[in-house]
Design brief:
Structural class: mainly alpha
Number of strands: 3
Number of helices: 11
Strand content: 5-15%
Distance between the termini: 40 Å
Radius of gyration: 18 Å
Amino acid sequence: MMYVLSSMPDIEYRQAVDKTEMMLHLKQHPDSIVVLDYTLFDLNDIEELQVFSLRFPLVRWILFSVELSLDFVRQLIGSGTQYSILLKDSSLREVKECLTYALRGQRYICQHMTEQLLTPEVTAAKEEAKLTPTETEILKDIAMGMTTKEIAEKRFSSFHTVNTHRKNIFHKLGVNNVHEATRYALRSGLVDAAEYYI
């Protein structure tokens, strides 16, 4: 993404590590395009993203992630044309197209996501997620509010390894962020509610 942005003329870009920093950038540049890895950014849920959209109505949002659940995408694109969807397996051509569409104020949905949205849903109930013991432990740590870095230090693992487990957990559970994963952990009894609220 950085490579593509740097190759586009007259484009300035900045990075934000969290939503506070993102808000500061948007206050200075309220007509920006935000390229957001939703599953790794510190937004709690879709409602929080929509609040940002209401607060900064000129912003175009490109959700650039490994995977997003279909329910999430349907809800998001149904709420406004300011959201574009670009999965990380998209071709370089699609990345450039998406940025070009956003610059013109248009929505873009990558081919992979379009195919998923147009595939008829299977009516069979979703199987219970089969997490490995390691994934279960990491999910508990996520639900207890630990960051990926903190979990890596606790487990004597690399940040990359824990991040890969995190992506696999989100994929298996069909969730998009920490908030949704935490709700799953609470509902399934992996984390005691009393312990969670302390």
